[in-house]
Predict the structure of Coenzyme A pyrophosphatase.
Amino acid sequence: MDADQIMHSIKGRTPKILGSEEYSEFAIFVPLIKVDGETHILFEVRSYNMRRQPGEICFPGGRVDRADRDAESAAIRETSEELGIDQQSISGIQPLDYLVSPFGTIIYPFAGILNADVEDLDPNKAEVEQIFTSPLSELQKKEPELYNIEFRMEPEKGFPYKSIPGGENYDFQARKMKEHFYYYEDKVIWGLTARILHHFIKLISDNK
């Protein structure tokens, strides 16, 4: 196969994240809701019976299933199931920046509007311990506390050091990740939820 044939064989493909087929994909929804005439953001507290991250604060969302048309439809479906509302009650959906976590997941966040009253929501108790809202204006006034988490490279036993320059003294580049913390009343919002929240707030503030 000559060079022209080789390049023709990959012509027109849509690039994706290398190795993404080995990642789990999740869709997250940042819900805006009116409370007493003011725009709030709604949060969930995960059920204490959940296997993963019980009691933590999060946005509605979950795994992108094969039956989902795309990540956006997954975010709408998960929000509908978790909050007990019709999918038609969700509108104005816009994508935020997606992120690849160090833990083998790709997160596709979206923001949009819940056209419902908080008291009309019927959270799924199997997944949601409780819901609460915070005025968006209050969150915009806050700067998150930032803390570094350091990831260290630890090659497995039998790693072929002799095959690389520097051998066992090779300078593997460890990386740091900033963990964000928001505090609202007695609630602590941190982790990926806080990172997505910070991104959303910065995005809408930059576009005023």
Notes: The CA atoms of residues 64 and 74 lie 5 Å apart. The helical segments are 3-9, 71-83, 136-141, 191-206. The chain has one domain: 23-207.
